UniProtKB/TrEMBL annotation:
<protein>
    <submittedName>
        <fullName>Sigma-54 interaction domain-containing protein</fullName>
    </submittedName>
</protein>
<feature type="domain" description="Sigma-54 factor interaction">
    <location>
        <begin position="183"/>
        <end position="413"/>
    </location>
</feature>
<dbReference type="InterPro" id="IPR058031">
    <property type="entry name" value="AAA_lid_NorR"/>
</dbReference>
<dbReference type="InterPro" id="IPR003593">
    <property type="entry name" value="AAA+_ATPase"/>
</dbReference>
<dbReference type="InterPro" id="IPR002078">
    <property type="entry name" value="Sigma_54_int"/>
</dbReference>
<dbReference type="GO" id="GO:0005524">
    <property type="term" value="F:ATP binding"/>
</dbReference>
<dbReference type="InterPro" id="IPR027417">
    <property type="entry name" value="P-loop_NTPase"/>
</dbReference>
<dbReference type="Pfam" id="PF25601">
    <property type="entry name" value="AAA_lid_14"/>
</dbReference>
<keyword id="KW-0067">ATP-binding</keyword>
<dbReference type="InterPro" id="IPR025662">
    <property type="entry name" value="Sigma_54_int_dom_ATP-bd_1"/>
</dbReference>
<dbReference type="Pfam" id="PF00158">
    <property type="entry name" value="Sigma54_activat"/>
</dbReference>
<keyword id="KW-0547">Nucleotide-binding</keyword>
<dbReference type="GO" id="GO:0006355">
    <property type="term" value="P:regulation of DNA-templated transcription"/>
</dbReference>
Length: 503
């Protein structure tokens, strides 16, 4: 049989009880501790106190005389009886010692400060499971039912490295791992995100990256992998939104030969391929609820069974997920599992769209052009003209870095000399109606999902104003006329409103 131990602080009401008895003021209350020991039997009693030893000694003597079980009382020093950190350390080390042997623990909550009670509940509901008792003059000695499971229900959420905590950690200006070098930025928000990503990389926690298309979610994910202990193991990226619904299980978990028509050989899934390394699941918010259940299982115990297989496989995979959707909203509307959300959203990074990265456009454009030149010798002398750069600065870049990259590539390919001119760039931009910069894009939005009319008008204005200036050879009055505007002041107003600088 396990030894049944009662553990408690000695509180002011306990000491008062014996002091009152001695001064014959009142013998009404024994205090919570003595009351509990007079009603319940324990194999031993462990007490902790922070009052002066001299004051507590008579109480312990009195208590020992009233109680058959052996009593151990340990004096601890606290700078204050409400100092959570010190209380936690003391209680944690006492409980650690006591639970080294097989024991059944009961904690008497009543003596001590609210901080002491909070620490009992925290530790007793998580690391050192125990029973709770309370004792009061009015209610007598009672078992306390604390009907929630801290460990199961709250710890996954508490484990989240919330933005504030990551921010605090990222305030240290630790040098960045070279893995982050190819994320080009000088924007303070992005620089901070690189620091945060490095902190997450060093820890083995799952990371969730939010961001619009082309904001660098995969780039960050790779950098996190390369800066982690798993760098030498595989990095497997997969776009969940692009997998046909009937193939999702097979892609994720693999299949055995003959599992379905067309399964002519065993095929490993991405979890198996990423074993030991990192799996990057892009567009994670697109997965159906039944797939979410199966994913939860892999995340909980690292096991899965390939389709058509009979044996469970175990893998060790670090998960990085990404989405452009608001998963919290999906959780609230019931289309994304809350338990899965808390599993994947431990370290969370929000990548801003390029329009919010002040100072980055020029830097990125030059870097992206240099990258293109590395891949294609013939582009190595291409430069961006100041006029073309102005167009870059004025454009909305809805497709973010990816759109900038492909526009530059087209402009570089079409440009005749070494300088990419404003006309080259405009032509390159004009080729992309589907991104919202052209007529079809502007007219093809799903208004039932909500649109930003002013933003769309801004896109059109940013698109046509530089062209009008070009056609008008830089004469503002003429440009205004070509645009059908009343006069050059109206054009000025529009340019200010939509952040267009004079080309
Ligand atoms: N800060 C950056 N510095 C340099 N290159 C970048 C940066 N951000 C993105 N890129 C480049 O832009 C392209 C798109 O980035 P990436 O694929 O990481 O975006 P994404 O958010 O994963 O997009 P999607 O969700 O559409 O897949 C890549 O070629 C990437 O290398």
């Amino acid at each position: 049989m396990n030894k049944h131990i009662l553990i408690s602080w000695i509180g002011a009401n306990d000491l008062k009880a014996v002091e009152n008895v001695q001064s014959e003021v009142s013998s009404e209350s024994l205090g919570p501790l003595a009351s509990t020991l007079s009603e319940r039997v324990f194999d031993s009693v462990e007490l902790i106190y922070n009052y002066p030893k001299k004051r507590v000694a008579p109480y312990i003597k009195w208590l020992k005389a009233r109680c058959k079980a052996p009593i151990t009382a340990t004096h601890v020093t606290l700078t204050s009886p409400t100092n959570f950190g010190e209380i936690y350390e003391q209680v944690n080390s006492r409980l650690d010692e006591l639970t080294a042997h097989k024991t059944e623990l009961s904690v008497l909550l009543s003596p001590g400060t609210p901080a002491m009670q909070a620490v009992w509940i925290l530790l007793g509901k998580t690391r050192y499971p125990c029973a709770f008792i309370q004792s009061s003059k009015e209610q007598g000695v009672q078992d306390v039912d604390i009907p929630f499971q801290l460990a199961a229900e709250y710890i996954p959420a508490a484990k989240q490295l919330n933005a504030k905590r990551i921010n605090k950690l990222a305030d240290t200006s630790a040098p960045l791992n070279a893995a982050f070098d190819n994320i080009v930025t000088k924007n303070p928000k992005m620089l901070k995100l690189k620091q945060q990503a490095q902190i997450l990389a060093e820890r083995e926690v799952p990371v969730l990256i939010y961001g619009e298309s082309g904001t660098g979610k995969e780039l960050f994910s790779r950098a996190i992998h390369n800066a982690s202990k798993r760098a030498k193991k595989p990095f497997i990226p997969i776009n969940c939104g692009a997998i046909p619904a009937d193939l999702v299980d097979s892609v994720l978990f693999g299949h055995k030969k003959g599992a379905f028509t067309g399964a002519t050989a065993d095929k490993p899934g991405v979890f198996e391929q990423a074993n030991g390394g990192t799996l990057f699941l892009d567009e994670f918010g697109e997965l159906e609820p039944q797939v979410q259940v199966r994913l939860l299982r892999v995340l909980q115990d690292g096991t899965f069974t390939p389709i058509g297989g009979t044996n469970e496989q175990k893998v060790n995979v670090r998960l990085v997920t990404a989405t452009h959707r608001n998963l919290m909203e999906k959780v609230a509307e019931g289309s994304f599992r809350e338990d899965l959300f808390y599993r994947i959203a431990v370290g969370v990074l929000h990548l801003p769209p390029i329009r919010e990265r002040e100072g980055d456009l020029t830097l990125l454009a030059k870097q992206l052009l240099a990258n293109l030149a590395e891949e294609d010798e013939s582009l190595k002398d291409k430069k961006i003209s100041p006029d073309a750069l102005n167009i870059i600065l004025a454009h909305a870049w809805r497709g973010n870095v990816r759109e900038l990259q492909s526009t530059l590539l087209r402009a570089a390919l079409w440009c005749q000399g070494d300088e990419i001119t404003a006309a080259d760039l405009r032509q390159a931009l004009f080729q992309m109606p589907e991104n919202g910069s052209g007529r079809e894009g502007v007219l093809s939005h799903d208004v039932s999902q909500g649109i930003d009319l002013d933003e769309l008008i801004g896109d059109l204005t940013r698109h046509y104003v530089p062209m009008a200036f070009d056609a008008a050879k830089g004469v503002k009055k003429e440009a205004a006329r070509l645009l059908g505007l009343e006069n050059h002041q109206t054009l000025d107003n529009r340019m200010t409103k939509y952040g267009i600088t004079k080309p």
